[in-house]
Specification:
mainly beta; about 50% strand; about 0% helix; globular
Length: about 90
Amino acid sequence: MPRASTGPDLINLQIKEFKKKKIKFLFDTEATVTFVKLRNLRGETLIYENKITLAGVIGHEIAVIGKITATILLNERQVQRIHNCR
């Protein structure tokens, strides 16, 4: 019998460019973008300016100020991924 959903799947990630040692992310393998709030980034993080407004399926808009390349630390490996900042 299938297990009932208990809400979104969250994962803890350690990202070099973030202020906190670990941060929770929504785990969505089909997402084409990931949003990060500016207040979570370290001051020296380079933001590639790209001001756009994105709209969701119900019309809610999100202002994006740019993109960063985040270094995700997984065990002994480092993985880089581009994130949108808002």
